[in-house]
Design goal:
mainly beta; 6 helices; six-stranded mixed beta sheet; about 625 residues
Length: about 625
């Protein structure tokens, strides 16, 4: 099978029925018919390896018009503009859709004014069974039309019917096959045309094996009642502009950033009006001029103190384990093959219908790092993947294209999140959930090790003053001193009194031990807010919620904002020594275990409780 490019292989019959000839011409009807199955003419997939070039047909007809006495009586049917653009003339037309489907490498205009453009794909596709499609009307509420043939393209598409159906202002090609990488291509945008015409267009439309989608998870599984996919959804947010707020008129759905400084927030207009005093001030101080603004639902704080805007978000609304980066990717890829609406719009933002097969892409891989396409955020995910995600937000004042994709974006990554699992012994898991408790505490929130500048003065019984540097205590805080050798009475648990400063703190020994003045310069360690005191600080997770609860499962995942957590005044970005306490009532004793949260994921904290042998509540 091959595409015919040589006129010498063709034969025709005039005013009769073809039997072996590739072409049949009827002069009364002025029709030219190409007949696949006769001779060397084929019309099978892929189009790049079948049919005949229009240049070849044109050249063959010129030769026949010169030698065939019957044909020579009639005006020549085709005018060539060049090898990829032709015009049917003098009442001549192609006989039937099959004849048109056999034409390759060129576009043409018919006598009715109808126009056909030829789509030729560049690059290679994985195999010839893959089905490309095209979209001729812009808008996410549209669908694609399959090309007539599978495999690499060389096929004509009607772009104008000569009447009211004019599709010359939009044409987008799609190649989206499960287990393959996705490609789409907007002819007019990518090639800078204002309108299509009847020529051949070449477009990069190729794919390859998707190494992150090996077929082990099927689309049927994702579409079924299976976690986490069953509770995953896509949310699209309306919004225009995405600019720094200015003194000007705004309309509904305009989105602005307060002043483009750290901590600035995004707002969306719900009632139009003219702003008149905005520069350098927060939204609360704007002179609104009749306009109404609310918080933009697509705003997210990704980096500490920096609020980013997104208009497409992947969300998980279940109660089970949150999706991994691989599951997020497969969910997105599956959604982009759907002919139905993928915008679940749980927040009723009113973006409208988004049919998956024409939606812009959502996620891609760089090595093992999952990236979002510009404007896409992953809202909910397995915390162990936090450090393997890269987001691309909407850059303020960067502009948006016709498909609501930001023309410019900024790369955003989350502060490093440590993550791991607490693994409980079986007796804690077996115990009735309501009779169990676990909680994670900081062993201390701040520590100074081997400080030789600490001194004790102003002693009055159990009361004294500790002097040094770098202390962050507040009145009522507990702290532990250790390392005094000459006067060991000064070691132990203390509680801050008076008005502590960074260099001096009045305190009382928690056990009432008489203190001793000390200026020996010994290596002293100070721990602030230690566990086993009333100042113990509960550890909070990446969403600022306490890491605590009933023991409902053997493995309890947790995450920790390593680069941003300042529980109890701790220093962010350093290892966090912690204590996990757990207990049951009738089956498991109270137990504690010490661990350290380091700058890593995959942490494993086993908590094993001895069997309870004594508890009784008859």
């Amino acid at each position: 099978m091959a595409k015919i490019v040589d006129p010498d292989v063709l034969a025709l019959i005039v005013d009769s029925t073809a039997t072996t000839e590739e072409l049949e011409i009827q002069t009364d009807a002025k029709t030219i018919e190409l007949i696949p199955g006769n001779g060397d003419m084929t019309n099978s997939s892929p189009g790049s390896l079948s049919g005949a070039t229009l240049q070849c047909i044109y050249s063959f007809l010129k030769e026949e018009w010169r030698t065939n006495a019957t044909l020579n009586k009639f005006k020549f049917p085709i005018k060539a503009i060049y090898e990829a653009k032709f015009v049917m003339q003098y009442g001549w037309s192609w006989q039937g859709a099959v004849s048109k489907a056999c034409l390759r490498d060129a576009g043409w205009q018919e006598i009715t004014g109808a126009e056909y453009a030829c789509m030729i794909s560049l690059g290679t596709q994985y195999d010839t069974t893959q089905q490309a499609g095209y979209q001729q009307v812009s808008g996410f509420d549209q669908n694609t039309t399959d090309f007539d043939k599978t495999g690499p393209l060389d096929e004509a598409v009607e772009i104008f019917d000569g009447g009211s159906n004019d599709y010359r202002d939009y044409l987008k090609l799609f190649l989206r096959e499960w287990e393959r990488t996705y490609t789409d291509y907007n002819i007019l945008v990518e090639q800078g045309f204002s309108a299509l015409t009847y020529i051949a267009y070449r477009a990069p439309l190729s794919n390859s094996n998707d190494i992150k989608n090996d077929g082990s998870v099927t689309q049927a599984f994702i579409d079924g009642a299976n976690q986490p996919y069953e509770d995953m959804e896509l949310q699209y947010y309306p919004g225009n502009l995405f600019e720094t707020v200015a003194d000007q008129a705004y309309v509904i759905d305009d989105v602005v950033l307060e002043d483009n400084g750290a901590g600035s927030r995004w707002w969306i207009c719900t009632t139009g009006g003219t702003l008149s005093t905005t520069t350098g001030v927060p939204k609360a101080s704007w002179t609104l001029g009749g306009s109404v603004w609310v918080a933009f639902q697509g705003e997210r704080e990704i980096a500490n103190g920096i609020y980013s805007a997104f208009n497409r978000c992947v969300q998980y609304n279940g109660v089970g384990s949150k999706p991994t980066k691989e599951q997020i990717y497969l969910f997105c890829q599956n959604a982009l093959t759907k002919a139905t609406n993928i915008n679940n719009d749980p927040e009723t933002e009113g973006y409208g219908t988004v049919n998956g097969e024409v939606a812009v892409r959502l996620a891609y891989w760089v090595g093992d790092i999952l990236n979002s396409w510009a404007g896409v955020n992953f809202d909910d995910f397995d915390s162990n993947d936090t450090n393997n995600l890269v987001l691309h937000d909407i850059r303020v004042d960067g502009g948006m294209d016709s498909e609501d994709v930001p023309l410019e974006n900024d790369l955003r990554t989350y502060p490093f999140t440590a993550a791991g699992n607490i693994v409980f012994s079986n007796n804690l898991v077996t115990e009735a959930d309501g009779d169990t408790l676990y909680r994670m505490y900081h062993q201390y929130t701040a520590i100074q090790v081997d400080q030789t500048n600490f001194t004790i003065s102003g002693v009055s019984g159990a009361n004294a003053t500790l002097s040094g540097t770098g202390m962050t205590l507040s009145v009522g805080d507990y702290f532990i001193l250790s390392g005094f050798i000459t006067n060991t009475e000064n070691n132990g648990v203390k509680v801050a009194t008076g008005t502590p400063t960074a260099t001096d703190v009045d305190y009382t020994d928690a056990l009432g031990v008489t203190q001793v003045a000390d200026v020996t310069g010994e290596a002293v360690t100070l721990k602030e807010n230690p566990f086993d005191t009333d100042s113990a600080v509960t550890v909070t997770d990446n969403s600022s919620s306490a890491i605590e609860g009933q023991i409902t499962t053997k493995i309890q995942g947790f995450d920790f904002n390593y680069d941003g957590n300042i529980d109890g005044g701790r220093t962010a970005g350093v290892d966090a020594p912690v204590v996990v306490v757990a207990q049951g009532l009738s089956l498991a004793e109270w137990v504690f275990a010490e661990f350290t949260i380091t700058r890593t994921t995959g942490l494993n904290f086993p908590v094993n409780s001895p069997d309870e042998l004594t508890y009784l509540n008859p």
